[in-house]
Amino acid sequence: MSLDKYIISAPGKVILFGEHAVVHGKTAIAGSLDGLRTYALFEKRIDGYLELNLPDLGLQHAFLWQTSELPYNLVNNIETKDGPQNLQFNDILLHKIKSIVSNGKDDQEINHIQQIAALTFLYLYTCLKNNSQTLWDGMTICVRSNLPIGSGLGSSASYSVCLATGLLLGFGYISYENNEKQEIKKSSELINLWAYQAEKVIHGTPSGVDNSVATFGKTQSLRFLLTNTKVPRHTKTLVENVRTRLENFPKIVNLILDAIHGISESFKEILEKEISHPSLDKVREIAAQYDLHTKLTGAGGGGCAITLIRNDVSKEQIEIIKKALNASPHCFECYETSIGGYGVSVLDTCIDINLKEFLECEKNKLTEIIGWKYFV
């Protein structure tokens, strides 16, 4: 069955242990966030145009391109149905797409995050459309998210997974209707592989953990308080700083990475049996006053902290802690959530929502209004 409109949803993530070590081949423990997700509305067009709406990134007007201007001739000759396991990242294609991302827009109208989001979409679209026999000649996409951007919660991976899933569906490489376990597994793996290509556009050398969590979801359920310090941080820069230290002081840094690896492995055993910043330290200090334990998540240097909530902690106690974290001068932003939510999912047009309604929907109402029905 070919759809003309559908909604894709993918969760954010938290890394409990091994944030930096995982980039260097060590173990990390991560889980999908329950309720903090990205949503993307895909709608078929036949006029040869691509429209990308990014209202939560502060973009006042949609990106608009003609499908005919994309450099399909630069796409490597691949068999998409087998996945891009052996696909070399196409720097030539990426460079060419960079030159057309801002088509019709003044440089002052768009910021770096908006440019990267558009570049990622066009890169995937060009690669996947090249081998597709679909009748889709263009599409309108609107992306919404209740994930804070640049806070270590996997917002870029959630976005990448939504794009990969929507394009693979639109171009006929996967189907959401086939409920056989083997086909679901095959579709999920294909989504994850293409989402990883998108993450390369955004981060350069991602570990692959974020897109895997956003695709497959699930983990052992843990309840916690997530606190956004609102201190901006740039994952790519923080990861490169660690890489530089590893190159300059390999013996020392490898010992640290091995120690982090050991912590992650120990936590795995516990589950089977049953780089900081002053703001993150402040979250830990406040939570400790209530006998709760906190750590950073993501690359550090700001972003978010996670505080484990034991079963004996009452709702009233949680509200008191949140009030303390929200209070001046910190003004942190708290989310009461858990890990172990569903991975990427698809909702067909049985939900009657149009582009205007989707654009105007309040971010905190996305989950309530949209929900999901079909899991890829």
Summarize the SSE layout with pairings.
Blueprint: E1 5-17, E2 29-44, E3 49-53, E4 63-66, H1 91-101, H2 112-130, E5 139-145, H3 155-170, H4 181-203, H5 209-216, E6 222-228, H6 235-248, H7 250-273, H8 278-288, E7 294-297, E8 304-308, H9 315-326, E9 333-339, E10 345-347, H10 355-360, H11 366-370, E11 374-375
Parallel strand pairs: 3-5
Antiparallel strand pairs: 1-2, 1-10, 2-5, 3-4, 6-8, 6-9, 7-8, 10-11
Helix pairs in contact: 1-2, 2-3, 2-4, 3-4, 3-5, 4-5, 6-7
Give an account of the 3D structure.
The chain starts with a strand and ends with a strand. The chain has helices at 91-101, 112-130, 155-170, 181-203, 209-216, 235-248, 250-273, 278-288, 315-326, 355-360, 366-370; strands at 5-17, 29-44, 49-53, 63-66, 139-145, 222-228, 294-297, 304-308, 333-339, 345-347, 374-375. The chain is of the alpha+beta class. It has a seven-stranded mixed beta sheet with strand order 4-3-5-2-1-10-11. A four-stranded antiparallel beta sheet has the order 7-8-6-9, with helices on one face. The radius of gyration is 21 Å and the shape is globular. The mean pLDDT is 81. It has two domains: 5-220 and 341-375, Ribosomal Protein S5, domain 2 (2-Layer Sandwich); 222-338, 2-Layer Sandwich (Alpha-Beta Plaits), CATH 3.30.70. A hairpin with a 6-residue loop joins strand 7 (294-297) and strand 8. Helices cover 40% and strands 19% of the residues. The relative contact order is 0.20. InterPro entries: GHMP_kinase_C_dom (IPR013750), GHMP_kinase_C_sf (IPR036554), GHMP_kinase_N_dom (IPR006204), GHMP_knse_ATP-bd_CS (IPR006203), Mev_gal_kin (IPR006205), Ribosomal_Su5_D2-typ_SF (IPR020568), Ribsml_uS5_D2-typ_fold_subgr (IPR014721). It is found in: Cytoplasm. It holds the Pfam family GHMP_kinases_C.
